[in-house]
Amino acid sequence: MVDAMKAEFALFPDAKVVYVNVPITDWAQQNSTKPFRSAIQGNPDLIFIIPVYDSMSQFVVPAITLTGASKSS
């Protein structure tokens, strides 16, 4: 699935794509939103976040909220 996404994004060479890999064994850690918060804060022009697994959303959504990225300017 990730390889297919990478192939599609390769069609847009000017697009900046950031991949964050969090091993499944680390999802339940207390700071599980940290890698996502860091990616959001490090890329203020971020438009999309695509969790590969639905269950990953429970960590991505709080990261979006905590960084204020869900607010439109």
Describe what this molecule looks like in 3D.
The protein has 73 residues and is mainly alpha-helical. Helices cover 38% and strands 0% of the residues. It has helices at residues 2-9, 34-42, 57-67. It is globular. The N and C termini lie far apart (32 Å). 8% of the residues are buried. The mean pLDDT is 84.
List keywords for this structure.
73 residues, 0% strand, globular
Layout of strands and helices, then pairs:
Blueprint lengths: L1 H8 L24 H9 L14 H11 L6
Helix pairs in contact: 2-3
Please report the distance between the alpha carbons of the first and last residues: 32 Å
Question: Helix share of residues?
Answer: 25-40%
Q: What is the chain-wise order of helices and strands?
A: HHH
Mean pLDDT: 84
Q: How much strand?
A: under 5%
- The structural class is mainly alpha
Q: Which shape, going by the Cα principal axes? A: globular
